[in-house]
Amino acid sequence: MARTREEGRQDTQGLGPRKAALAILRAVYLDRQMVAHLDQPRGLAPEDRARAERLAQTVLRHTGRIDTLLSAYLERRPHPLAQNILRLGVAELLLDEAEAYGVVNAAVAIAKQGRATGGAAGLINAVLRKVDQDGRARWAQLAPQTLPVWLRKAVGGAWGETATRAIEAAHEAGAPIDITLRDQSAPFEAGEPLPTGSIRLPRQTQISTLGGYEAGAFWVQDAAAALPVKLLGDVSGQPVLDLCAAPGGKTMQLAAAGAKVTALDLSKHRMGRVRDNLRRTGLSADMVTADALEFNSGPWPIIVLDAPCSATGTIRRHPDLPFVKSAREVEALTKLQMQMLDHAISLLDTGGRMVFCTCSLLPNEGENQIKAALKRHPNLAVLPLDPTALGVDPAWISAEGGLRILPHYWQDRGGIDGFYMALLQKR
């Protein structure tokens, strides 16, 4: 279909990526959908899709601060969709440092196209112009976005107010890109080598353009997510069951280390991602699509259980998560983790070892799960960890012997995802 003259003019304003970003915000705020589960916007070039997601993530990462700023210019909050247009405009003006004329005009144009937002076009114009005039000074005085009340209460109760504020600041700062090398001994020219063995790259890095990508020399994996497999030490030649394997980072680590890996996941779609990743890296594993709780093969000498969890440790990468997750959902997940732990222990051979891990900030999904499992299984023990060999601070070792990582650790390096992991043995 041919575009009208008006549509052509609007396209030159860059409305496409902005409208796609607003669609993402609506899905997150109003429909409580995770960004990763949304369909790709149609009709946008890859670079525009990337811009749309970046803009939406910027707004999500700073929503609290943006809304506090906007309240200084509003007598009452407008329609939610108009509020989203304002949020996007503030993010562009103050965080992207975009040219004010283009930002304001685009915001007004988008508002006029919406049935629910058309009446707010004048308000949006006036507010964004005021933000451009004096919003930067106000912005500098505002604190980082806080966690949702239910989550902040749990995090604060576990780690204290000072740590909670540092975690919130780490979430707002976002995350660089970490990669794991297929051959840990191979030289890699780009990035900063981390003490744990991962390579850290700037967040704007185009992964697909790096040397070795097409040859499968590495894969993207946060430094914290790469640590659970390293707890096992040498796994060469050992059969390993990787439960909840998708998207395959740990499967690839194990396979690259010479293990005979069986990768299991409930989702056929997610297992497709594992298969694709293995194909690109030239690694191999046996693939099983099944419910981990109904899988009864064994016994196994080594099991890796990266259990389903709240993923609250990954908020710096997924700023949509606080707007979607709830305390009730976490309660259900902790019950599932307990069931999966018990079942995995039943599959573990006597003398066998198991890594349990979750990308969560909450002790109920980490430390407390292990403490409870030890009470239920007198033949289970936590094996000691060597922080020097792992490349971590000894202070990260928790009281029961696991490894607790919080997002503000390595602040001078750009932080790290929140994680908990423990190495267990069945005796």
Percent of residues in beta strands? 5-15%
CATH class of the largest domain equals Alpha Beta
Number of domains: 2
What's the β-strand tally? 12
Q: Mean pLDDT across all residues, rounded?
A: 94
According to CATH, the fold-level topology of the largest domain is: Rossmann fold
Low-confidence stretches: 1-10
Q: Which secondary-structure class do the elements indicate?
A: alpha/beta
Q: Share of helix among residues?
A: 40-55%
Blueprint of the fold:
Elements: H1 5-11, H2 15-29, H3 46-61, H4 63-71, H5 80-95, H6 100-113, H7 121-140, H8 149-159, H9 161-173, E1 177-181, E2 192-193, E3 199-201, E4 218-220, H10 227-230, E5 239-243, H11 249-256, E6 260-265, H12 268-281, E7 286-289, E8 300-306, H13 321-324, H14 327-347, E9 348-358, H15 367-376, E10 380-382, H16 387-390, E11 403-405, E12 419-426
Parallel strand pairs: 5-6, 5-8, 6-7, 8-9
Antiparallel strand pairs: 1-3, 1-4, 2-3, 9-12, 10-12, 11-12
Helix pairs in contact: 2-3, 2-5, 3-5, 4-5, 4-7, 5-6, 5-7, 6-7, 8-9
